[in-house]
Design goal:
The complex is a heterodimer of chains A (493) and B (151). Chain A is mainly alpha-helical and 493 residues long. Helix content of chain A is 74%, strand content 1%. Chain A has a two-stranded antiparallel ribbon. Classes of the chains: A mainly alpha (493), B mainly alpha (151).
Chain lengths: 493, 151
């Protein structure tokens, strides 16, 4: 009850609603333009909203996140290029529909089922977060360390074709997270005499570099050319026909929430799983799947948008982000001096309510902007990259400078941008590195605390790993490591 | 302007493997040496976790070296516009370096003008508007509204 009152309180706050709207509007453009990503926009927003009130920053970021994930479907439908990775599956049926002159129909289905998916995801977050927090209260420092390790290994396995490369990316991120004054002993670590590094590597320039500048270089390194845009003309659709997929879309949304809650899996995996479910469950689609079946759009969009709420669950209750954007949102909390975890919902209830309110209000703006504005922005989707990329580069520089008003952060951003570019070129996903930079400090302190506590007991190993939760988490890490790499298995044998 | 870069992926992977192996060894040595200097027990040592990560990185680097040359061909033949990427990266680097001396407004105007032209934009009015208008707008927005004093 308190949760819903809290959400209602934010819904009445005009400034909060306007900030969600501003974020939603930005998300609509950012998500729909290939070459710009939601991760990039949120990373830039962290630096811009650095000095804002936390709730205002969250309102804007939630707007960008919710509408940005949906609007990837716009370019997926109109130009067959997904604006966001989670919209890849939408291209399978969305683009054939657009080619057949039914782009408006595809868009309406995408809007409606993205809305349903988002609402479902945030409802799940509101209902499930508290029970998970109470379980998490029983976690020991070792459990937290293993949970974060599990997160890193799953992200490493799901975001790259070469598992070892995913883990190497995570290791590099952990090294970066250790630079600076150690929080336990106060010793300068890995600073190599550079004074600016004593405060550690600021997460904002690292994120802006890894997601913003590296993306600019990636686009330039491949092609600046864009495809043709299909026209979007109004079509009369029967409401009954459009909403009849609602019951099954809730099943796809459930898949989205579960997949979203797994660290690293995220929208693309959820959309693929939901799509394969749709192929099994829908016996008589409007046209065969892959040739413009609206059932395919329903599955993809319900699932990938429900992932947003799902990804928030481990981030808020365990401080383990579900995807890159939630890793960035986690850094917003850190930047504002807040610590997500089992006590977060109790101790920082207004922040929890702000996230939920941002999600719910954002989903309403998704519906409004999707129905009213999205059909009119097809020309913007085709904005030339040669104009867009220089402006994004300048934004990356301003964004990284704005965090601490110092040029050193701009140099860091450039370093991470170039590093991220080479990593992507060589198939090293940057997601494990991002997660590791965010989680590294927590892993380090919890690991040392666990070892210290266990070493004071007679049976060291039993004290360290003897609890059922710890054993389960340890098993999860081992299973993830073994199941993901034949090469690793061969190596261990 | 397009150059297709058929990467010698096997060689690159091997080189990467050796770089990570070197990093792993260096981090192990660094952690051990610095731990000795810190004179604390391992349980509280700031170098325990770096050592753990470095040890974990060791077999991964060996795996990478072993897997060199076994990548899918799909992964290795990727279009890479080497010149464009290098020019943009170096141009951005130069822009960052000169910014404190030329100020944000002047350096950004020059950078945008140069980059827009290099990337193929030939509408001079648009280039001029973007190169002057965008930095001015950002300067006002950040300086006046967000109180970020750009160089």
């Amino acid at each position: 009850m308190n949760t819903f009152l809290g959400i209602f309180f934010y819904a009445l706050d005009l400034q909060f609603v306007l900030l969600v709207f501003a974020g939603s509007l930005a998300g609509l453009f950012v998500g729909s333009i290939p070459g710009l990503s939601v991760s990039m926009a949120t990373a830039l927003l962290v630096s811009i909203t650095y000095s804002w009130q936390t709730t205002n920053a969250l309102a804007t970021i939630m707007g960008v996140y919710v509408v940005g994930v949906f609007s990837g479907a716009l370019s997926a439908i109109l130009i067959n290029i997904p604006g966001a990775p989670s919209s890849v599956v939408t291209t399978l049926d969305g683009f054939p529909l657009a080619r057949a002159g039914e782009a408006y129909k595809a868009l309406i289905y995408a809007v409606l089922y993205s809305f349903i998916g988002t609402l479902f995801g945030f409802l799940a977050l509101a209902v499930v977060a508290k029970p998970i927090s109470s379980i998490a209260l029983k976690f020991t420092p070792m459990d937290y360390f293993l949970l974060a390790t599990f997160g890193l290994t799953t992200v490493g396995s799901l975001t790259t074709k070469h598992f070892a490369k995913g883990l190497i990316s995570a290791c590099l991120g952990l090294f970066f997270s250790m630079v600076g004054i150690d929080s336990v002993m106060g010793t300068a670590r890995m600073t190599f005499g550079v004074k600016n590094l004593q405060a550690g590597i600021n997460i904002v320039p690292a994120l802006v570099g890894l997601y913003g500048f590296s993306e600019v270089l990636m686009v330039i390194s491949t092609s600046l050319k864009g495809g043709g845009v299909h026209s979007l003309s109004y079509q009369k659709l029967q409401t009954k026909e459009v909403i009849r997929h609602t019951p099954i879309s809730l099943w796809y949304a459930t898949i989205g929430v579960v997949i979203g809650a797994l660290p690293g899996a995220g929208g693309p995996v959820a959309a693929f799983l939901a799509y394969s479910q749709a192929k099994k469950l829908v016996k008589n689609p409007s046209v065969p799947f892959g040739e413009g079946a609206v059932e395919g759009i329903v599955a993809s969009e319900s699932a990938n948008n429900a992932c947003i709420g799902g990804a928030m669950i481990p981030m808020l209750t365990l401080a383990i982000p579900g995807d890159a954007v939630t890793a960035i949102i986690l850094s917003v909390f850190y930047v504002h001096g807040l610590r997500p975890g089992p006590m977060f919902i109790k101790t920082s209830a207004p922040m929890f309510h702000a996230i939920l309110a941002g999600g719910f209000i954002g989903s309403i703006f998704l519906l409004v902007l999707g129905l009213l504005v999205a059909p009119r922005i097809s020309k913007i989707i085709a904005v030339q990259k040669r104009i867009l990329l220089p402006l994004v580069t300048v934004l990356c520089i301003i964004g990284s400078f704005a965090t601490n008003n110092r040029m050193f952060d701009v140099y860091l951003m450039f370093f991470f941008g170039v590093l991220g570019f080479f990593m992507r070129r060589r198939s090293y996903s940057v997601a494990p590195m991002t997660l590791a930079i965010v989680l590294g400090g927590m892993m380090d302190s919890n690991f040392r605390r666990a070892i210290s506590l266990a070493s004071s007991e007679d049976a060291f190993l039993v004290a360290l790993l003897g609890r059922p939760i710890t054993l389960v988490l340890l098993l999860l890490v081992i299973v993830t490591l073994l199941s993901n790499s034949r090469a690793l298995k061969r190596f261990i044998r | 302007m397009e150059e297709t870069h058929l990467s010698r992926s096997g060689t690159y992977t091997r080189v990467e493997g050796f770089v990570f192996l070197l990093l792993s060894f260096s981090a192990i040595v660094y952690s051990l040496v610095e731990h000795q200097r810190a004179k604390v027990v391992w349980q509280q040592s700031p170098y325990l976790f770096p050592l753990l990560v470095a040890v974990f990185l060791l077999p991964l680097s060996l795996l990478l070296i072993r897997s060199a040359g076994k990548e899918n061909r799909d992964d290795t033949q990727v279009l890479f516009l080497v010149r464009d990427t290098t020019v943009v990266a170096l141009g951005t680097f130069a822009y960052i370096i000169v910014m404190p001396y030329l100020t944000f407004l002047v350096s950004t105007t020059l950078f945008l003008f140069g980059l827009l032209f290099y990337l193929g934009e030939r509408r001079y009015l648009l280039i001029s508007l973007l190169s002057v208008g965008f930095p001015s707008l950002m300067y006002l927005l950040f300086g006046k509204l967000l109180h970020v004093m750009l160089p």
